[in-house]
């Protein structure tokens, strides 16, 4: 598989020249010229559905970055179009393609920990994103915590019955100007007694961190962060361990490659997508449940 062309309505020609591939301002022009076998959508969220609809019109298997959209109606429109065209569309929730998280999911679903009682998730970005980026990403729950929420949908197989959320501005009080937050603490509970606690922040001095624990009646599964180096030095004086990765691109690089490999497998062998637009709809619904449950908002003074 190789990159046949690049579409950007503003800088398509520039990036095409920079990367030595054909650049276009419209998807239709790229498809007409390059005759691609598949489409990868990595554009701003507000363009995702329009590109998915074009992919359906041209019959192109597609990998689309999450989320599908910021509101429910466009997601339903995209799901309907995909069903009518019968093309495979992968939604890029990258944790579903991470080998470590896949092992946790497989063990949970196989019942290795018994009945799930408690899930702990920690999501911490190393630094605040630029304000220009935050304006296009949606709020902390819709953009960042949605990965944790999708993962909970994946593990549990159903939406929770109850939710409690507290959102804070601990690092940047000026986020109030755009109605966003930098910290989220969320508790979700399911029928049968399982409870999940999500702790998320957009600013962590120590590094990018995403840890997970699933606890049940028969045991627990812990998924720690991989380190830049697996080497640990021990001596009588101290212990030294490598730092965590600084950015999600580095932590999840193999997962992003796995997404592309999965698209290739779909083209070659007709495999079913591991993550679909329907999964995106369930993640959107859980985001709305969380946002509607916000009980406290605090400001750093």
From TrEMBL:
Gene3D superfamilies, per database record: Dihydrodipicolinate Reductase, domain 2, NAD(P)-binding Rossmann-like Domain
One Gene Ontology term from the biological process aspect of the record: NADPH regeneration
EC number: 1.1.1.18
GO MF term set: inositol 2-dehydrogenase (NAD+) activity; nucleotide binding
Lineage: Bacteria, Pseudomonadati, Pseudomonadota, Alphaproteobacteria, Hyphomicrobiales
Keywords: Oxidoreductase, Plasmid
Similarity section: Belongs to the Gfo/Idh/MocA family.
Alphabetical list of PANTHER family matching this protein: BINDING ROSSMANN FOLD OXIDOREDUCTASE, PUTATIVE (AFU_ORTHOLOGUE AFUA_2G10240)-RELATED, NAD(P)-BINDING ROSSMANN-FOLD SUPERFAMILY PROTEIN-RELATED
Superkingdom field: Bacteria
Domain (Gfo/Idh/MocA-like oxidoreductase N-terminal): residue spans on this chain: 15-91
Every GFO/IDH/MocA-like oxidoreductase domain range: 102-221
Cellular component terms per the entry's GO annotation: cytoplasm
Keyword check for Oxidoreductase: yes
Broadest EC class assigned to this enzyme: oxidoreductase
Protein name: Myo-inositol 2-dehydrogenase
């Amino acid at each position: 598989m190789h990159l046949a062309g690049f579409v950007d309505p503003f800088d398509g020609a520039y990036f095409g020249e920079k990367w030595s591939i054909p650049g276009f301002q419209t998807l239709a022009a790229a498809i007409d010229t390059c005759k691609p076998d598949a489409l990868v959508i990595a554009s701003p969220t507000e363009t995702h559905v329009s590109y998915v609809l074009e992919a359906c019109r041209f019959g192109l298997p597609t990998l689309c970055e999450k989320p599908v959209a910021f509101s429910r109606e466009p997601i339903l429109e995209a799901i309907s179009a995909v069903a009518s065209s019968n093309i495979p569309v992968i939604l890029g929730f990258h944790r579903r393609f991470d080998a470590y998280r896949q092992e946790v999911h497989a063990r949970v679903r196989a019942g290795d920990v018994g009945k799930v009682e408690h899930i702990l998730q920690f999501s911490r970005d190393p630094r605040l994103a630029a304000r220009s980026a935050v304006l296009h990403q949606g709020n902390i729950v819709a953009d960042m915590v949605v990965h944790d929420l999708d993962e909970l949908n994946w593990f549990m197989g159903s939406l929770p019955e109850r939710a409690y959320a507290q959102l804070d501005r601990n690092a940047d009080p000026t986020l109030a100007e755009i109605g966003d937050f930098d910290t989220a603490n969320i508790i979700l509970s399911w029928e049968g007694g399982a409870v999940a606690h999500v702790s998320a922040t957009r600013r962590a001095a120590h590094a990018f961190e995403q840890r997970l624990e699933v606890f049940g009646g028969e045991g627990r599964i812990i998924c720690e962060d991989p380190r830049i180096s697996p080497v640990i030095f021990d001596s009588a004086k101290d212990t030294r361990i490598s730092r965590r990765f600084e950015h999600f691109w580095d932590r999840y690089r193999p997962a992003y490659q796995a997404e592309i490999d999965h698209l290739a497998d779909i083209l070659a062998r007709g495999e079913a997508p591991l993550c679909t637009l329907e999964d995106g709809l369930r993640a959107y619904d859980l985001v709305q449940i969380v946002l509607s449950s916000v009980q406290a908002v605090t400001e750093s003074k």
